[in-house]
Each structure stands twice: as structure tokens, then as C-alpha cells.
Amino acid sequence: MTKLSFDHIFMNLATDLAKRSHCVKAQVGAVLTKDTRIISIGYNGPPAHTHNCDEEWPGVGCPRDSKGSCSLALHAEENAILYAVKNGANLEGATLYTTLSPCLPCSRLIYSAGIKKVFFDRSYAAYKGIASDEGVDFLNKFGVTAVRFSV
């Protein structure tokens, strides 16, 4: 019997968590780990106990900001990091698994939180139709290993 690696388990969990999102545009999941233990989880959506985009704006989603992004939602990485910090977790040296590569603002948060490795499944640049994954470039430039997860 072949056992899945922890990397596979955590990426599978991030993929499953994405299905919890109420966003009608994109579903993204994230898992924060340290030493093969889960610290926190998150998925994209508005702050808890506010509203659900698929219920309030079915089919079209929440209002967009000037860059065409959700104006009300937190990204999956933000939700995972905020929940961890809220509960006193030490993120120094942690690993993040996410279904979409981090945008630049999330990458700055990841770097500042002390997370040292990021695995992602799909490209944010390809999703947004932009030239490069500037968040991934930022992380790799400043010592956080950010790589596409390969099976």
C-alpha cells in the first residue's frame, strides 16, 4: 500500500476547503502547517458572520473593486493566517498550501508572518490574465520558497 505524502494530504485538504467558499467567481482553499501538523485552514470569502456572496448576489457575485476583484472578500491565505494569529499560533517557519498562487498583497502578508514555504496548485496570473505571478516572484526574491505543487 502506498501512503500519500503530507504534501499531498495538505494540498488535497486545500482543494476540499475551496469547495466551502461562497464566492461565485473563484473558490480557493488554504492550509497552514508546521512540522506535519495543521495550524490553520481558510478559504476565500467575506469575514465570518457578514454575508455569503452566492446567496446575496447569486450568479454575479459581490461588487468588484477597481481591479475587478471581490470588494468584500478575504483571500484564503488571509483567512488562514488571521485565524492562526487570532488563536496565538506561531507561524515562523510554517508551510502554506493553497489552490491558487498568492497575489502580491497576500505574499507580503505571508512573508511578514514568517511563513517559509508555499505550495500552490494553479497560477493566479493565469486566472487573472496578467503577465506574471508577481506574488510568487516576490516570495522567491525574499527567501520564501514558492513553488507549483507537482504530483
From TrEMBL:
Zn(2+) binds at H75, C103, C106. The keyword Hydrolase applies. InterPro entries: APOBEC/CMP_deaminase_Zn-bd (IPR016192), CMP_dCMP_dom (IPR002125), Cytidine_deaminase-like (IPR016193), dCMP_deaminase (IPR016473), dCMP_deaminase-rel (IPR015517), Deoxycytidylate_deaminase_dom (IPR035105). Its cofactor is Zn(2+). One of its GO terms (molecular function) is dCMP deaminase activity. It comes from the Bacteria. GO terms for biological process: pyrimidine nucleotide metabolic process. Gene3D superfamilies: Cytidine Deaminase, domain 2. The active site is at E77. Signal peptide: none annotated. GO terms for cellular component: cytoplasm. Keywords: Hydrolase, Metal-binding, Zinc. Belongs to the cytidine and deoxycytidylate deaminase family. This is Riboflavin biosynthesis protein RibD. It comes from Mucilaginibacter gotjawali.
